[in-house]
Every structure is written in structure tokens, then in C-alpha cells.
Amino acid sequence: MNQRFTEFFRFSFIILISVSYVQAQSSFIPLNDDYYHLIDRLEIKRGKFTEGFHSTVKPFERKAVVALTDSILKEGTMQLTDRDWETIDYIREDSWEWTKNMIATDSVRYNKLGRLRWFKSPPPGKKRKFWEHPADLYSIHNKDLDLHFNFVTNNFFGKDNNTSSSLWFTGRGVEIRGMINEKLGFYTFVSDNQGLFPKFVRDFAPQYTFPGEGLAKVSPSNSSVDFLTARGYITFRPLKSINVKFGHDHNVFGSGYRSLILSDNSSPYLFLRLDTQLGRFKYTNLWTSMLNNDGRSWKDGLRGKKFAAIHHLSVNITDKLNFGVFEAEVFNRDSVGGGYDLNYLNPIIFYRYVESYIGSQDNALLGTDFRWLVGKKGSIYGQFVLDEFLTKYLFNGSKSWTNKYSLQLGGKYVDAFGIPNLDLQAEYNLVRPYTYSHKDGGRNYAHYGQSLAHPLGANFKELIGILRYKATSRLSAYGTLMLAKQGKDPDASTNYGGDILKGYETRIGAADQTFQHRIGDGILANTVFTDLRLTYSLAHNLFLDGRYLIRNVNSPSPQFAQKTNVFSFAIRYNVAYRQQTF
Question: What is the total count of domains within the chain?
Fold first, then answer.
């Protein structure tokens, strides 16, 4: 099967590459909550959806985001604050290769506000070798090659009351993106990282891993962590309306701080993605190869494989209302070295039919999402995921374990209460016990031991509040409050439905179909998480972060109860802030 898939993939890839009519192709903006909120804010204040991308499908193409700013400048009807004009400037400078048709008009105020440059522009008639553009250390831009090269670094030091030694972290690497012959886009990012993180972060991910990353080595002497971050892909358009992307990275479906469909919580994975956009419709196919936590030691040997086939249809019903449906299938044919089931390569078929057709018991999920722009002041969004259910139990209030579903409802409010540049967000997430898990644990909705959806897994309720305030051109304030109630397992052999890596056949009350499973069953843990951050921009994508974090977990069990106070100071360049909200 593995050989069949390899030959099929090679044939398909050659066919796609050989298509004569290939369009100019943009790379994508890396996932970054701070950055993507700026885009979201502009779309909300514009009061209608962007033509070039659907905001529920991430990441976004750089070309499409610049096109959004083009539309804003051309229309000239939005009520923008000075900070908004600076945001437009920042976004356009960050993807300057797509601004060659920049609109020249006196109404473009952002040119007068001044860019956040590292140093002054060169004298007239002279060209700088490095940092010719503030967004790039080095760049080339012509019809044969568009190249953007940057170094990246992330460094912090701080203190955790649960750790005797001072916290520290250093990460350094490179980021390269661009196009070849204005047709083939590419992106690569690699960073070598070492550090001592707060205890709750070290305890969160499974052994030999790190939250949001893959393999990690832990020093037995001081608990510091050593891991490598790497992402990379190529992308091209065989047809005007179809984009193809292949590589290792994250993909996200949703409009919220969390995603219950597919998030960037786990480490990057290998994928082939097709985006077809026709007017108001965007159809995304995603075929992935992932690694399975099968209970073996992860230190040596080839790790077990698992695969997923996902498709998502997003429809802009109006200029303000978006509705989407999705289906995912997770399967695993062999524990090690298994191949992809060719039946799931059909891009326009109902996967649940395929599952029954081939007689498999793969893990199927169905769901919907929506987003509604409200009065140029806010947006309301939500998701619903149905993992498994029996009708006779779903509607009779029995709290059966088969009622496996998750629900999200949230909203954003920009320029809140008439205060310019103050943005608020509130979000509620609920995930029933055993959602995202599977009978044998080998086809759970996880990759490299970490959830593909919410970091808490299942068996929880969560309320999140976020405040964002851009006080000056350079200074921004962020506040995140998370309140979570979750049921925990007392030991590795007990399963109350919160750990999605465990097979649901090991559940509590497995012999009794009428046994009631409620959110919070097991050892109850109530978490109050507060993250306060001030960020100062020294130059384009160069930031100083001051952070104060309070995390209190109240539980009757000492193994879960914990009080955490963390203070840290960081400097980062061309890399996103690590949220670690769990």
C-alpha cells in the first residue's frame, strides 16, 4: 500500500507541476495570534469579508492580505485610527513584494506616520546591501527570483516560583521565503532551541515532546529542554482558482482563539493541501501523514504512522455571514510503516461513506463553523464538532459516553466602548468526555501525542477573555484570562474521557451503556490562568516582551493542585510570541 501511494503521489505531483498555465504564487503569513488579529480587526472595521481569502481557513496568502489593504485604501470609507494606518503600513511593509501597484493618493496617511525602521534610510542614489526593506535582512526581487532572507531569534529570562533555577530560553535560526519565476512559492523556517521553561509547561506535553513541537530532549540535571523547530513547504497554482501546497506546517480552521476543528496546538506535520476558491465558495482538501503515540518508547526507532483526510467547505452566504462544514477521517492501517488508504484521496466524496464501504472502523468527525460581522464593530463566531453519537441517547438527556461532541461560541469587539484601539474578545469552549478519542487509541485526533484541536483534550468547559490595546505606535498591551473546569484521570489506567490518547473502550462504566458521563467526571481541576503582557516594538518585527503570569489550579488531588507565578522578560525577532495558555 505504501508503494502504491508513493507512485500515485509522484504521478499526481508531476501532472500538477506540468500544467502549462501556472499563476504567480504567494507564500503564506506564518500563524501568529497578534498578527492575525490585526488582519481580523481591519476586516471587521471594513464591515465585509475579504475577496482574496476566507478568514476561517488559515494561514492566509501574503498577496491576499495586501489586496485587502489595497481595497481599504481604494475605497477610502473606513473610519481608521492612527494605529490602523500604522497597521496597514506594517502589513504592506511585511509583504512588500506584492505592493508594486501601491495606490498613490494624499489620503494614504500611513506614509506620513513613519515606519518603524531600525535605522535611517540611505542617502538618495545609494542602495543598502542589507535591510534595504525593513522586513528583510536580505532580499532579491526580479522576474526570476523573489527571495527574502531573515534571521530569527527568541530569548527570555525570568522566574517561576515552582522552579529553583531562573527561567531562560534561547532560540536562533533562519527564515527564507520567496518565488521562483513568479510561479513556484516556497518557505522554510528552522530554529535551534534550548531553555528552562515554567514547570506547568514542562509537565504539559507527553514525554520526549514539547508543547507545539516534536521531539524534545530533557536534561536530567536541571530539566532544561532542547528541541528543533522546522517548517517548510512549496506552493503553486495549476489553475487560477486552485492553490496547491505541500510540506510540513500547521493548518487551522476557525475564527477563534481556539479551534475545535483543527488548530496549531500540535507539532507541524506533513500535508498536501488543495484550496479551490470560486467566488463565495472556498473548498479545502487536506491529506496528512502524522505520528502516533502508540505507547512505545519514543527515544529510538521508527515511530508509528497515522493519517488523516480532511475537507472543509466555506461559503460567504452574504458579505457579512460565513458558514462552513467539514469532515475529517483519521486512520491507521499498520502500527509502523503503514501506507495511505487510496480510498480517501477522492477530494469530493463523503468520507463516512468510504469508511463503511471499505469496512473500516476509522475515526470520523463532522462539524460546522460560522462567522458573522456585526455593524463594523465586532464579529460573532462558533464551531460544532460531532465525533460520535447514538440518536436514542443524544436527545434523552442520558449523558451517554456516545454523546461525543464539542462546541464553541465567541465574539470580538473592536474599539470597545468607543475607546480607540481597545479590542475585546470572549470565547466559550465545551468538549464532552471521550471526544476526539478512538476505540484503540491509535486513531485518536492527535499528532505526536498532542491534540489536533484544543490543548486541554476533552472533558472540560472553558471561558476565555482577551484584551488587546495598542497604546502607541510601538507599545501594545495584552491580557488573557482563562477559566477552565476539567475532569482528570487519577492514574494511567483510569479513563474518565479527558485524555484523548486513551482508547474509549477503557472508559469508566464501559459495561453499562446507561452510565452517565458528565463534564468534570474524575478528579476535578479548576484552572484560573491570567497572562499580562506589554510588548514594545523596537523595529519591524523586533519586540521586547514583559510578561507576568498567574496560574492557579485548584483540585482535591495534590498531583494536580498547583500555584504558579511567572515573571519573564524577552526579546524576539521575526518569531511569534508563545502563548502557552493551558
Answer: 1
The rounded distance, in Å, linking the Cα atoms of 400 and 255 is 30
Residue 135 lies in a domain: no
35 sits in which H/E element: helix 33-46
pTM: 0.89
Query: What are the residues facing 346 on neighbouring strands?
Result: none
Residue 317 sits in a domain whose CATH number is 2.40.160.130
How distant, in Å, are the alpha carbons of 49, 117, 118, 133, 135 from that of 122? 39, 12, 12, 11, 16
The helix or strand, by DSSP H or E, that contains position 155, with its residue range, turns out to be strand 145-160
Residue 82 lies in a domain: yes
Inside any domain, residue 292: yes
Do 482 and 551 touch, CB atoms closer than 8 A? no
**pLDDT tens for each residue of 480-534:** 999 999 999 999 889 999 999 998 888 888 777 777 889 999 999 999 999 999 9
- Of 60 and 507, the structure prediction assigns the larger pLDDT to 60
Residue 376 backbone class (left: φ over 0; alpha: ψ -120 to 50; beta: rest): left
Q: How far is residue 516's CA from residue 25's CA, in Å, rounded to a whole number?
A: 52
List the grid coordinates of 178. Answer: 520567496
CA distance 466 to 579: 12
Compute the distance between CA of residue 462 and CA of residue 567 in angstroms, rounded to an integer. 24
Other Cβ atoms within 10 Å of 514 Cβ, number: 9
- CA-wise closest residue to 262 among 330, 205, 348: 330
Per mean pLDDT, which range of 53-57, 273-277, 437-441, 451-455 is the poorest?
437-441
Does some domain include residue 305? yes
Range name among 109-123, 169-183, 548-562 with the lowest pLDDT average:
109-123
Q: What is the residue range of 166's domain?
A: 2-116+147-573
* pLDDT tens by residue, 317-350: 999 999 999 999 998 876 444 577 788 888 887 7
In DSSP terms, 312 is beta-bridged to: 284, 326
